[in-house]
Write a structure and sequence with these properties.
The protein has ten helices and nine strands. Strands 1-2-3-4-5-6-7-8-9 form a nine-stranded antiparallel beta sheet, covered by helices on one side. The relative contact order is 0.10. It starts with a helix and ends with a strand. InterPro entries: MORN_2. This is MORN repeat variant.
C-alpha cells in the first residue's frame, strides 16, 4: 500500500487533512514527503501543492477573516506578533488598516518580544495557518479557496502490461517506465512538472529497489543510494544546493 492510498480512501476529507498537515510541516520534511508523493502519484501531489498556503497568503485574506483568526483564542494575537517580529516598521503599520481595533494590543505584544530564533518565527506562522484552517473547516470564515482534484484521482488506476507513461495536466511527462500486473518494474524516470528530471531508478514488483538518484529542479544531484523493499538501505549520499556532501547510513528506512 502506498503512502497516499489511505489519504485517497477518505477522498476530499483526506485530501484537505493532508494539505493542512503539509502546510505546517518544516521545509525539509515537507520536501521528503513531496518527493515520495510525486513518485507515487504526481497528479494528486500537483493538486496538493496548488492548495498549500503560507503566512503570506494569510496576510492577503480579507480583514474580517484575519480579525476572526486573531481573536478566536486569547493567545493568538501574541503568537501573531511573533510572526511580525523583525519586520520593517512600514509593514507593521500596514496592519492599521487591516485590524484597527487590535492594533494597540499588537504593538504592546511586539514591545514584549526581545529575541526570537527563525525556528520560533516559523512555528508561530504554522500556528496561525492551523488556526485559520480550523476556523475555515468550522465554516466560521471563508478562508483560502480550495482547488480540488478530479474525482478519478482518488481511485486506483489499472495499467496494462508493458511501457507506461504518466502525464501532468500541463502535458509534461511526469513518469515513464514499465508495468507488469499493474506494478512498476525495471527502470523508471520521474520528472518535475517542468520536465526536468526528479528521480531515476529501478522498481521490483512495485517497490523501489537498488540504486536511485534524486535531483534538484536544476539537474543537480540531491541524493543517491540504494533501496530495498521501498526503504532506504545502506550508505546514502545527500547534497545540499551548494554541493556539500552528507553521508548517512540507513537500515530498513531508518537512520543508524
Amino acid at each position: 500500500m502506498g503512502m497516499l492510498d489511505r489519504i485517497k480512501r477518505r477522498q476530499l476529507d483526506g485530501f484537505k487533512e493532508f494539505v493542512i498537515n503539509m502546510e505546517t510541516t518544516g521545509s525539509t520534511t515537507r520536501g521528503q514527503i513531496f518527493t515520495a508523493g510525486v513518485l507515487e502519484d504526481p497528479i494528486f501531489m500537483s493538486y496538493v501543492m496548488k492548495n498549500i498556503r503560507t503566512f503570506k497568503d494569510f496576510m492577503e485574506l480579507p480583514s474580517d477573516d484575519i480579525d476572526s483568526v486573531l481573536t478566536a483564542q486569547e493567545q493568538t494575537l501574541t503568537i501573531f506578533a511573533k510572526c511580525l517580529w523583525g519586520s520593517e516598521e512600514s509593514k507593521i503599520m500596514e496592519m492599521e488598516s487591516i485590524i484597527p481595533r487590535l492594533m494597540s494590543r499588537l504593538k504592546d505584544e511586539l514591545s514584549y518580544i526581545k529575541e526570537l530564533t527563525p525556528q520560533e518565527v516559523d512555528a508561530a506562522k504554522y500556528y496561525i495557518l492551523k488556526a485559520t484552517r480550523k476556523l475555515q473547516m468550522e465554516e466560521k470564515i471563508n478562508g483560502f479557496n480550495w482547488k480540488f482534484p478530479p474525482q478519478d484521482v482518488f481511485y486506483p488506476k489499472q495499467w496494462k502490461d508493458g511501457p507506461g507513461k504518466i502525464m501532468f495536466e500541463n502535458g509534461v511527462l511526469a513518469a515513464e517506465g514499465v508495468y507488469s500486473k499493474n506494478k512498476r518494474i525495471g527502470s523508471w524516470r520521474h520528472n518535475y512538472d517542468t520536465g526536468s528530471i526528479l528521480a531515476e531508478g529501478d522498481y521490483l514488483d512495485g517497490f523501489k529497489a537498488g540504486v536511485w538518484v534524486f535531483y534538484y529542479s536544476n539537474g543537480q544531484i540531491k541524493a543517491q543510494g540504494k533501496y530495498k523493499d521501498d526503504l532506504k538501505n545502506g550508505l546514502w549520499k545527500e547534497f545540499d544546493r551548494n554541493g556539500h556532501l552528507t553521508e548517512i547510513q540507513y537500515k530498513e528506512g531508518v537512520k543508524v
